[in-house]
Structure formats: structure tokens, C-alpha cells
Design a protein that fits this description.
Blueprint lengths: L1 E8 L2 H9 L9 H15 L5 E4 L1 H6 L1 H9 L3 E4 L12 H19 L5 E2 L12 H8 L4 E2 L20 E4 L5 E4 L4 E4 L2 E4 L3 H6 L2 H11 L6 E4 L18 H15 L2 H14 L1 E3 L1 H9 L5 E3 L1
Parallel strand pairs: 1-2, 1-10, 1-11, 2-3, 4-5, 5-7, 6-12
Antiparallel strand pairs: 6-7, 8-9
Helix pairs in contact: 5-6
């Protein structure tokens, strides 16, 4: 079984400044340096992956986009300013993804087929985003977590890669994020905070469980391997808000030092490719359709 290795290319520093501290600013060079470490791991093993990039990262660091493309990797869209879909109108969402798609294609010289929403924010109440993506020329989306989560999730959504028929007759492929079922409950697996917080053997177990039926989608973020990291400047915030931000920041730093070796072990133990290649292999087996 060949799994998909994906990276959501975003910069922790400017996102936490915007979302938690109310300060605007461009991405920092940390996103370049940390993404470069992922690229080095893949090159060492002659593997390719998919990099879902924020438009603001591509705009600030076009050389990073060219480096990813030169390595034979797939480029996708992760929005422009990391705004969750439920915070946007359909028109604003369309502008975010269309602008990012065009920018990344212009810089890289390669087509952009895939999209992943910030914070997996395509859910039942934002299902309209799939129509927008199809209309904008995306071949596939990989934003849906088929779980009943607190912050995200689409309970009951199919777990396999399949073609979704939209209301107007158009279609888009959905590559749902990987889950495992334990004691009758679907749980998220194979990346992000789950990889960071839990021992590596948990993700290895999940991958082996998933590959009995389908390829897994492993995902991570450049900031998850970033250490050391400076203290947050919470000046200007109320004591309550500052305390809330610092609690979040502390949680984000937990176990960061373990992530790179966990990822290296996964890359050594399993076979990986771009998500688009994995999708093509899966859909060539049996046509799979569903209604949104």
C-alpha cells in the first residue's frame, strides 16, 4: 500500500499573531527553514509528497514554491490567509482559493489540482465550499475529517477516496482525512497534534490498521518541528486573554522535539507518494460516487 504524505505549509508566528494577538504581519522565514527540513527527508528517501500552501506564504517566499516544485512534489492550496471556511462568505472563500491557486501555478509552472481547508473547516454547514472548489477548477479536496469532533468533523462521511456528485451536476473528488475506529468510535489519526502528542507507535498502529482497506493520508505542519521558539509578546492583551493565549501556545509546543524523528521513522517504514497519485490509483480500481 502506498500512502499519501502531505504538509500544510503555514507559518505559526504570523497565524498566532493574527488569530490570537490581533496583529497583522507577513509569514516569517521559519516556514521556509522548517519546510526545507521536510524536503530534505523526502529527498533522502527518494519520496514525493503534497504541499498545501497558503497564498501568503507563496507570495512572501516564491523561491520556496519553486524549490518544492523542483523536487517533484505536488503543490496544492491551503487558502490564502488561513481563514476557516465558516468565517467566510462563498464569495470571499472563492477569492481566497482562486487567488492562491493562480499565484502558486504562476510561480511553480505546474497545475494545482488539490485543496485543503484551514483547520479542516469543510463540514456539513460549509458543504457549499465543495461547489465553489469545483467551479474554481479544483479536481479534488482533502479537508473533511469523517468524525464527530469538537472543532471540526463531518460525522458519517465516507472514509474512502471517492467522487462526490454536486447539486448542479458537477463533480469533485474528496480524499477524507484518515481515521481509525476504536471501541465503536471514529478517531482522527496520522498527523498533526495526534502525531505530536502520542507515541510514534500509535501512528504506526493506525497506519497498519488503515492500510488493510485503503491508503492513509499523513499530514503535518512545518511549525511542528520548530525548536527553539521565542516567547510570545502578549502586551496589550487583558490578563485573561493573555493567559488563554499562553495556555494555547504551551500546548502547541508540547512534544515538538519528538515529531521529526517520528516522521523519519514513518518515512522509513511505509511507502509514500503525492496525494494526487494516490487518488488516481484508488479511483482506477472501482468507480466510487456519492452525493454531497
Amino acid at each position: 500500500m502506498i500512502h499519501a504524505f502531505t504538509v500544510d505549509v503555514e507559518d505559526y508566528h504570523n497565524i498566532i499573531a493574527r488569530d490570537w494577538l490581533g496583529r497583522e504581519g507577513p509569514p516569517t522565514r521559519a516556514v521556509v527553514e522548517n519546510t526545507g527540513r521536510f524536503l530534505a527527508h523526502l529527498a533522502k528517501r527518494h519520496l514525493r509528497g503534497t504541499f498545501f500552501v497558503l497564498g501568503e506564504v507563496a507570495e512572501t517566499f516564491p523561491s520556496l514554491i519553486r524549490e518544492i516544485a523542483a523536487g517533484g512534489h505536488e503543490l496544492g492550496v491551503h487558502g490564502f490567509f488561513h481563514r476557516q471556511v465558516f468565517k467566510l462568505t462563498s464569495g470571499a472563500f472563492r477569492k481566497e482559493v482562486v487567488d492562491a491557486k493562480k499565484l502558486i501555478e504562476d510561480i511553480s509552472g505546474q497545475p494545482v489540482r488539490g485543496h485543503r481547508a484551514p483547520a479542516f473547516s469543510i463540514m456539513p454547514n460549509t458543504a457549499w465550499a465543495l461547489d465553489v472548489l469545483a467551479d474554481a477548477g479544483f479536481a479534488y479536496d482533502s479537508s473533511i475529517f469523517p468524525i464527530a469532533g469538537r472543532r471540526y468533523g463531518w460525522p458519517g462521511f465516507r472514509e474512502d477516496i471517492h467522487e462526490v456528485s454536486l447539486a448542479d451536476g458537477r463533480k469533485i473528488i474528496e480524499a477524507p482525512m484518515s481515521t481509525v475506529t476504536l471501541f465503536g468510535k471514529r478517531l482522527p489519526a496520522c498527523g498533526g497534534g495526534y502525531l505530536r502528542h502520542f507515541p510514534g507507535m500509535i501512528t504506526t498502529w493506525a497506519l497498519k490498521r488503515i492500510e488493510r482497506n485503503r491508503p492513509a493520508i499523513v499530514y503535518t505542519h512545518p511549525y511542528e518541528i520548530e525548536l527553539p521558539i521565542g516567547a510570545l509578546d502578549t502586551s496589550g492583551l487583558s490578563p485573561a486573554d493573555a493567559s488563554r493565549v499562553l495556555r494555547f501556545h504551551k500546548l502547541q509546543l508540547r512534544n515538538r522535539g519528538t515529531v521529526e524523528r517520528k516522521l523519519a521513522a514513518l518515512l522509513d517504514a511505509f511507502r509514500f507518494d503525492t496525494l494526487w497519485n494516490v487518488i488516481q490509483r484508488e479511483l482506477s480500481k472501482t468507480p466510487r460516487k456519492a452525493s454531497a
